[in-house]
């Protein structure tokens, strides 16, 4: 026991992360448009002292809606409804740098940080789904490298906007009639390749200064971006070795940027099937996989790899010959992960589909509560994780069993808090509150 | 008594609508970033059976933040936090067609309508503040007519998106594995001058079908737009005659579009100073006006008229000679309203500032509860209003006294409900739920 404290997020997918969760009788598919369902999940995670709930997002309809509950309520609204029903837990939501305007997103996340008294996090994505472009006036999805170039400038702009009011800009002196000290409210006057934004933001600086910056890409561009900006990284790894390589690499990159690597938390995804015996856990996993539908699974595989495999025999070997190394496609990090599974396990196409059905490439663990806790501890103690994004295969039961059975073991091993020690998401994650880049003390420190 | 039922919205401005409200000891300026303040106001309005709470918005910082609390939390988040703390009252929020993308706004308002079980309304604006352009990559604010041309196409697109899932598109049949009937989910394939959007939306149709369409422009372009799209209009009038002219005109225009004019509710703004005697009410109003600051008032006047009056004598006559009739400026409806006050009342510059300090051109009434109720009844009974957007000069006291003193009189006169009869904002306003334009029954009816 090293005294290392893990961070745990509950990653809420409407009906659960397993692609067939909606067909399982224990999922509550009829509640996925009911906000109390999400509020209750967040309250449950808060009672268990999780750091945050986490939401994915994308501005287009999944192609395979016919076969699964692949839509969701919009995250800014869902997160707001959750903070209105909770006190301490953080909320991390995905928003795209490719398909939003920085001024608009800056306002909404600032407002969420105010509303929640400092519990907002932003999962920064460039949007992977190519069909999103068609909803925003474009004929084609921008290239991976161009999306990252825009993301880089986007985060620069939005950071300036969040810093544009110094913390003490509001005076509100009724007697003199001075409401704000305008010398402490700064235009950002940004002019770059993608954005031209004058600012300032039209609201005071928020409790956390800025929402927590979370990032989820593990490609080369993604790692470079994360090393500069991310305070937490959500990342997909199938093996301890892969996670260790990523952990060491991203911490080293952050250090090379002059950052304290402890200011960047690495949180792999983990999707647990938990039962009293290892065999029962396997059977539970199998029951979900039996509910999968090839039409859906192959579309999902196509989305992860860019390859259409629908004409191949599901019970034949995975047809390696059709994998090419198209540059644009292979820049996505999930593509390499799928190739690695094929190399390592030589699966049939159906087996590969089942391998990916649980959590789209994130690690699926099956076992007893002790076995799941062992995996978590192993990754945490061997330089692979500062915590985890927990991705329940189905909801709400899949998180209930984790909280009831696994969290107490982690606590007994001294790996997870029994009470919150702070009030903001930055507090929970052990991250500093950044000073405004426009504040004189900050400028002095940087000089 | 005609049995006509009025609609009442509470228009929440952070510290109240009077520009000096923040300086008054009864305003709660220290709570304007505290969400419980807004939740409590909405709960109070809900207890009084108001139709909705209403929020203004604009994506830029007011130029005169030095002298007043002219910032706000972002409306989508505030509305969501309010629906999480209420059961029945509607929420109407302003969002710009000039500075947002229809796909993004469609998602957020759809989500809000789902979360609230059908209580969302959208106040459609083209954004009047010229400095907003500089936060969105533009060198200048688009012209009034171009903003309205974009708004027209925007509403067409977003309506298609909200209609893109037929009401019964979700099947969720666990046995067969069919989640959605994709024949009932429609691409919108819009391609126009301003937007190219494929769709469909990535969420099912919301409880109200579409949020209620509210509109607040009374210019020529604004009236034409409202006649086509608006289901409620928020409008500024200083006199019964002006309000009657507007009411008759907009209803006639709606009818000319083939609409039932009862499907378009006219809701003038009213900002009441209420006291036990008429004299005390005047004194209350005076106390607020004494707290105004010329620097702020003149900037406000400049914003409404486009004219800089800061070099003129505040106690001299209003300098009519400098008003020109610049076409772009005079297309805004508030410009004409200010000119009318000058024509009618021949005020000094200071008097004009005080006339506008209460509610930026909306009607300010001072009087006893009976006198305020008389004004409301007069407008309602003489073809000037279907209801009112109540704009309390300060908060929370300014709405408290209205609810305690005026609402009971309206009830005794049979003008306002004592209980909600429906659950959605459409129910409260007496508006029909629109069918999806893609639904076969709808297509048949239209044929």
Automatic annotation (TrEMBL), chains A, B:
Keyword field: Flavoprotein, FMN, Monooxygenase, Oxidoreductase
Domain Luciferase-like, chain residue ranges per copy: 27-384
SUPFAM superfamilies in alphabetical order: Bacterial luciferase-like
Record InterPro entries: Diverse_substr_monoxygenases, Luciferase-like_dom, Luciferase-like_sf, NTA_MOA
Molecular-function GO terms, alphabetical: monooxygenase activity; oxidoreductase activity, acting on paired donors, with incorporation or reduction of molecular oxygen
Binding of FMN, residues: 57, 94, 144, 148, 218-219
Family, as annotated: Belongs to the NtaA/SnaA/DszA monooxygenase family.
Protein name: FMN-dependent oxidoreductase (Nitrilotriacetate monooxygenase family)
Organism: Nocardioides cavernae
């Amino acid at each position: 026991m090293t005294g290392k404290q893990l961070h745990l997020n509950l990653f809420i997918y409407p009906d659960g992360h397993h692609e067939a969760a909606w067909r399982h009788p224990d999922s509550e598919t009829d509640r996925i448009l009911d906000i109390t369902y999400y509020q209750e999940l967040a309250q449950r995670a808060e009672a268990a002292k999780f750091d945050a709930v986490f939401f994915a997002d994308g501005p287009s309809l999944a192609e395979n809606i016919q076969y699964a509950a692949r839509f969701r309520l919009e995250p800014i609204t869902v997160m707001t409804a959750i903070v209105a029903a909770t006190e301490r837990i953080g909320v991390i939501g995905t928003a795209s740098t490719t398909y939003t305007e920085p001024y608009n997103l800056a306002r909404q996340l600032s407002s969420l940080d105010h509303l929640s008294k400092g519990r907002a996090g932003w999962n920064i994505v460039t949007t992977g789904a190519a069909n999103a472009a068609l909803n925003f006036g474009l004929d084609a999805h921008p290239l991976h490298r161009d999306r990252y170039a825009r993301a880089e400038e986007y985060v620069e702009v939005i950071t300036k906007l969040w810093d544009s009011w110094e913390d003490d800009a509001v005076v509100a002196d009724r007697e003199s009639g001075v409401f704000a000290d305008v010398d402490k409210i700064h235009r950002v006057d940004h002019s770059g390749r993608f954005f031209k934004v004058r600012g300032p933001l039209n609201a005071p600086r928020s409790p956390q200064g800025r929402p927590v910056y979370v990032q989820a890409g593990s490609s080369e561009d993604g790692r470079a971006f994360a090393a500069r900006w991310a305070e937490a990284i959500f990342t997909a790894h199938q093996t301890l070795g892969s996670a260790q390589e990523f952990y060491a690499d991203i911490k080293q990159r952050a250090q090379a940027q002059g950052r304290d690597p402890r200011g960047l938390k690495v949180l792999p995804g983990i999707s647990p099937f938990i039962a009293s015996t290892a065999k029962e856990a396997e059977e539970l996993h199998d029951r979900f996989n039996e509910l999968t539908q090839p039409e859906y699974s192959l579309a999902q595989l196509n989305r992860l790899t860019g390859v259409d495999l629908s004409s191949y025999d599901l019970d034949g070997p995975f047809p390696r010959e059709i994998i090419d190394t198209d540059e644009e496609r292979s820049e996505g990090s999930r593509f390499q992960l799928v190739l690695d599974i094929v190399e390592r396990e030589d699966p049939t196409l159906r087996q590969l589909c089942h391998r990916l059905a649980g959590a789209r490439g994130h690690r699926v663990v099956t076992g007893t509560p002790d076995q799941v806790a062992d995996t978590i501890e192993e990754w945490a103690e061997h330089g692979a994780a500062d915590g985890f994004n927990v991705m329940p295969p189905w909801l709400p039961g899949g998180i209930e069993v984790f909280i009831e059975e696994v969290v107490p073991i982690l606590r007994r091993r001294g790996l997870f808090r029994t009470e919150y020690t702070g009030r903001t998401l930055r507090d929970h994650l052990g991250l500093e509150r950044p000073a405004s880049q426009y504040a004189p003390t900050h400028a002095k420190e940087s000089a």
